[in-house]
Design goal:
CATH superfamily of the largest domain: Outer membrane efflux proteins (OEP)
Strand order of the largest sheet: 2-5-7-8
Strand content: 5-15%
CATH architecture of the largest domain: Up-down Bundle
CATH topology of the largest domain: Outer membrane efflux proteins (OEP)
Radius of gyration: 40 Å
Largest sheet: 4 strands, antiparallel
Oligomer: single chain
Distance between the termini: 50 Å
Helix content: 55-70%
CATH class of the largest domain: Mainly Alpha
């Protein structure tokens, strides 16, 4: 039994570890994030709130039924004084009389119906506009989540590629260092040659340790972006080369800014201000409501309201209420003018937003073109740096070049390698920004 328990615990531990490991391509990571990212989840909840708000507004114009049950127990009934002469008494005197019953109950049901109200009609339009705004805000959130996942995914790949490069460089320098140390011990090399290589080797080891720490942080940032526990062991299946593809198809002479989510949101705000103006104007119109009231009452001196032999007395009322705004001392006109000014502000902001979107597109396009150009230049420079380093390796081994010259060539190579990595990252992030401005992604997450 004890052995079975141990096996069970081991299997459970292995299963738990397996559950903590996740593997994603970029598209899978984006789809997962759109479902599980905390910000995306709350954006969907905002849509759900807007839907409920729309129904709440709609329901306010539909029949409303309210019921009231009232019970009173007059512990000491009030006394009323009437002229005594009504009952044959002496004129000028009063007789104390108690009216009614000590216990009274009533049940009332009232149905109300809005027949006409201009504010209600505008409210329905405003509720739909608010729902449209929430949907566009959700779309903006998905765009930002997608861009965040792409940038985080690319950062992980960059750090992993940097570690691989550093490991290759460390292996090369270690080999040179070992060979040079042997030559020095045989008296055929100077001690400075060993020291120069030792400096390079130590620096590379330190850089590798730092790169490994950065890899852990980059994975945690990716986990946070896609919506999993930051301690999850996440593996990436896409390569850096597949991500860092130029987006030349995104370059457009006349971009469709109407697809931009900021354009849609600014348009929503303009529509809302227009509806607010209509609302203020509608308040000058009369409103009409109808109601039907049905009630039943009973009076008892004892609590026997559930006795079927006792009587209840029914009543019913039907009525209409017409509310006509006549004079507001200019307050209604002031509110209307204020709403009109707010609409003009929204229209100005809408025009400004369109210009901002065009500028943002040109900037994103320029940045992506720069990233393409930089990657090409840095790749060519890396090839040159690799050739220079190899030549100096050969010269150093043949005793023609000094260790200082070799170190300079190596430093130049490492700089070129870092420049290529930065160019690849710029390619990924600038393309994501360009896609965000144009609103081109194909979403696979929940709406």
């Amino acid at each position: 039994m004890k052995r079975i328990l141990i096996i069970f615990l081991l299997v459970s531990g292995i299963a738990a570890q397996a559950q903590d490991k996740k593997s994603f391509s970029l598209e899978e990571a984006i789809a997962f994030a759109l479902d599980n990212n905390r910000t995306a989840i709350n954006a969907r909840r905002d849509i759900a709130i807007a839907i409920k708000q729309k129904w709440e507004t709609t329901a306010s114009g539909l029949p409303q039924i309210n019921g009231v049950i009232d019970y009173q127990n007059q512990l000491k009934q009030p006394t009323v004084f009437i002229p005594a002469e009504f009952s044959g008494g002496e004129p000028g005197t009063f007789t104390p009389v108690v009216f009614g019953t000590s216990q009274n109950a009533s049940a009332t049901a009232t149905l109300t119906q809005l027949i006409f109200d201009g504010s209600y009609l505008v409210g329905l339009q405003a509720a739909k506009a608010f729902l449209d705004f929430s949907e566009n805000a959700n779309e903006k959130t998905k765009l930002e989540v997608r861009k965040g996942v792409i940038n985080a995914y690319g950062s992980v790949l960059i750090t992993q590629e940097n570690i691989a490069i550093l490991e290759s460089n460390i292996a090369t320098v270690k080999k040179n260092l070992d060979e040079t140390r042997i030559i020095f011990e045989n008296g055929l090399a100077e001690e400075e040659d060993v020291e120069q290589l030792q400096i390079t080797y130590s620096q590379l080891l330190n850089q590798k340790l730092n790169a490994e720490r950065l890899e852990d942080i980059a994975i945690q940032m990716l986990n946070l972006a896609i919506g999993v526990d930051i301690a999850t062991e996440t593996q990436l299946t896409d390569t850096l080369t597949s991500l860092a593809q130029p987006g030349l198809g995104l370059f457009q002479e006349n971009p469709e800014i109407e697809k931009n989510v900021d354009y849609k949101i600014a348009l929503n705000l303009t529509e809302q201000r227009s509806l607010e103006l209509k609302l203020e104007r509608s308040k000058a119109l009369p409103s009409l409501r109808g109601f039907i009231n049905v009630s039943t009452t009973a009076g008892r001196n004892e609590f026997n309201f559930f006795d079927s032999d006792e009587r209840y007395f029914a009543a019913s009322i039907f009525g209409l209420t017409l509310d006509v705004p006549l004079f507001s001392s200019g307050a209604r006109n002031a509110r209307t003018q204020k709403a009109k000014i707010a609409l003009e502000q929204a229209e100005t902001d809408f025009d400004y937003t369109q210009e901002q979107i065009r500028l943002a597109y040109e900037q994103a396009k320029s940045q992506h073109q720069l990233a393409i150009d930089n990657l090409e230049v840095s790749t060519n420079n890396l090839k040159l740096a690799e050739r220079i380093e190899r030549k100096n390796q050969i010269k150093f081994q043949e005793g023609i070049a000094s260790s200082f010259e070799l170190r300079q060539a190596q430093t130049q190579l490492y700089t070129a390698q870092n420049t290529v990595l930065q160019s690849l990252l710029d390619m990924i992030t600038s393309k994501a920004e360009l896609e965000t401005v144009l609103n081109t992604p194909d979403y696979r997450g929940k709406e």
